[in-house]
Specification:
The chain is 78% helix and 0% strand. By secondary structure, the protein is an all-alpha fold. The protein is globular and about 65 Å long.
């Protein structure tokens, strides 16, 4: 079904209403994903205590991976059909997966329900949202994405505290059902408010269409840099509570460390997005990713007390927030309008490689380090540092292309008239 195009952009009731719905959509998807560190710790100690940390880490990593990688198909669906059915069907699938998780008792049950079903549903909501929001904003696009993606930070504060408080009182099953009902409400809000501001025409699926964008050197380098950074980015989100507990922090305080990380990340989503619209989106991403890597190696790695852990959580939460909020805006910078959804899906597919393998590799490094987290922190910091440096290379490459003088247009030769 085609959406009515050509409404005003960079403001107006429909643009802000779609941004409001996008906030809810990101709150129930990435906001929920940002709370997975709670489950890593809980599963290790109770429900799945017979499994290794590396095996349990596959639940979070596959869930995060599918949210990103499914976009290689879902982004194409958005370009052809718009956001409506992606939001409705995807949202219901996410709720169903969490309801099934609430009655799961075995590893394979939790894996299929939480890591697969709910993740694919959440992915559909994400790609319906990010693609639609790009059609409403141009000059203030990074600001709009920053506002919308701040929902993931709020979710990363609310969901961990909620889960941590409810499990001892009502049990794991009813805790997951309560989360599912909140997500169902968010699905309803986003489905009603999010619209697209351009017409959508279905086109055939061809394999070569996924390779063609990689011929654009800017987009290819963007994929490589963001993928490498993604290897390390999610490790603090997933392992910060466990790493803090290994240094003597209480379970209760370690859960609040994740809440602190996500609470500060609210400002890290909005403020860099606002500044990026004035000072350059690639400039802001380059700075924030580089600082995130430095914080990991200079603060999280050598820190051995509660103060260092909480300080890292706060500062890392702020600077790493730009990765989520600015990534869609960077895709738009190097993509034609009709391929925004498609290219976003291709980029996130590559990012999913790092997301999928990062946590299991980190879990294996903890095992190889006799239960300590030193190797994990080094791995996270180095991969983020390499990714940040490549983002800087891309920024200067784009600047070089922009500064390159364009050849003057060739005027058509005058016809010979036979006159002297």
């Amino acid at each position: 079904m085609k959406e009515a195009p050509n409404w005003p952009i960079d403001g107006g009731e429909r643009a802000w209403l779609s941004t409001f719905g996008a906030w809810w959509a990101i709150f129930i998807t990435f906001g929920w994903v940002n709370s997975l560190g709670v489950f890593q710790s809980y599963y290790e100690q109770t429900l799945l205590r017979d499994y290794s940390p590396s095996a349990i880490a596959w639940i979070a990593s596959v869930q995060q991976c599918l949210i990103y990688s499914a976009g290689i198909v879902l982004g194409k669906i958005f370009d052809g059909y718009g956001p409506r059915w992606l939001l409705i069907i995807g949202g219901l699938a996410q709720v169903f997966g969490l309801m099934m998780t609430s009655i799961s008792t075995e590893f394979y049950q939790v894996f299929l329900a939480q890591a697969v079903c709910s993740a694919i549903g959440a992915s559909a909501v994400v790609y319906g949202t990010l693609g639609a929001l790009a059609t409403w904003w141009k000059v203030r696009r990074a600001t709009a994405y920053g506002i919308a993606t701040s929902g993931s930070s709020i979710g990363g504060v609310i969901f961990p505290v909620m889960v941590n408080r409810l499990i001892p009182q009502v049990g794991f099953g009813w805790t997951m059902r309560a989360v599912a009902f909140i997500i169902l409400f968010g699905v309803a809000v986003s489905a009603v408010t999010i619209h697209s501001n351009r017409a959508h025409t279905p086109t055939p699926f061809y394999i070569h269409t996924y390779l063609t964008p990689l011929k654009d050197k800017r987009f290819a380098l963007l994929c490589v840099s963001m993928t490498l950074f993604g290897f390390g980015l999610f490790l603090p989100f997933n392992f910060l509570p466990s790493a803090a507990q290994s240094l003597g922090m209480s379970f209760e305080l370690s859960i609040y460390a994740i809440a602190v990380l996500n609470a500060v990340s609210v400002f890290g989503r909005i403020l860099p997005g606002f500044l990026a619209d004035s000072f350059g989106r690639f400039n802001m991403m380059m700075i924030c990713t580089l600082v995130s890597a430095i914080l990991t190696l200079a603060l999280w790695l050598p820190g051995h007390n509660n103060a260092a852990t909480l300080s890292f959580a706060a500062f890392f939460g702020f600077f790493s927030g730009s990765y989520v909020s600015l990534t869609p805006a960077l895709v738009v910078e190097v993509s034609p309008p009709t391929e925004i959804g498609h290219r976003t899906g291709v980029l996130y597919f590559f990012i999913s490689i790092g997301v999928l393998t990062g946590s299991p590799i980190a879990g294996a490094l903890v095992g190889a380090n006799d239960g300590k987290y030193t190797y994990l922190k080094i791995f996270a910091g180095v991969t983020m540092l390499v990714g940040a440096l490549l983002i800087a290379v891309l920024r200067f490459y784009i600047h070089h292309l922009a500064a390159k003088p364009k050849p003057a247009p060739v005027e058509p030769a005058m016809e010979e008239t036979g006159k002297q």
